[in-house]
Amino acid sequence: MPLRHEPGHAQVDFGEALAAIGGVARKIHFFAMDLPHSDACLVQAYPAESSEAFCEGHNVSFAKLNARLLECCRRRLNDRLRGHDETIGERLVRDRAVLLPLLASPYEAREKKAARVSSLSLVRYRGNDYSGPTAYGHREVLVRGYVLTPRSCLRQAFFPGTLLR
């Protein structure tokens, strides 16, 4: 019995792979989202498999999905998947018809944790010390941990009550 995939249903998972980054073999974690009805997919690499990476992967997927689907499927719009009478383009029309519109402002994929700034203006987050403004020494702050930045896996800002990215 062949598998049946309704339009708009997605499958999401994480995987691991070795990748050469700057000439060094490193283990990466990749987020994969697939629309099996039309055979469209998106893969995004992350330094760790975490809830922030999972949410960020969805953000990336949803933000790029419409453009990516069009770009990747244009070449195959008139092809037929094995065992189906309709073309990929005809099936993609049904996938897109049931997808919800994107939100006006994207969901921030981040972790929030309360912490205390030390006398040395350091805040501990996930086993690492990060420097914060000296004005917040000995005070409670909210730390926001994001998935990616150009220089590290996390970025944070330290301000009581509200934080900047």
Secondary structure elements and their pairing?
Elements: E1 11-21, E2 24-35, E3 40-46, H1 51-74, H2 88-98, E4 110-116, E5 122-125, E6 128-131, E7 140-146
Antiparallel strand pairs: 1-2, 2-3, 4-7, 5-6
Provide a quick synopsis of the model.
It contains 2 helices and 7 strands. By secondary structure, it is of the alpha+beta class.
Mean pLDDT: 75
Structure class? alpha+beta
SSE string: EEEHHEEEE
Strand order of the largest sheet: 1-2-3
Q: What is the number of strand segments? A: 7
Percent strand: 25-35%
What do these coordinates show?
- This protein is α+β, with helices and mostly antiparallel strands and about 160 residues long.
- Helices cover about 20% and strands about 30% of the residues.
- The chain has helices at about 50-75, 90-100; strands spanning about 10-20, 25-35, 40-45, 110-115, 120-125, 130, 140-145.
- The strands form three sheets. A three-stranded antiparallel β-sheet has the order 1-2-3. Strands 4-7 form a two-stranded antiparallel sheet.
- It is elongated, with a radius of gyration of 21 Å.
- The chain starts with 10 loop residues before the first strand and ends in a 19-residue tail after the last strand.
- The model is unreliable at about 150-165 (pLDDT under 50).
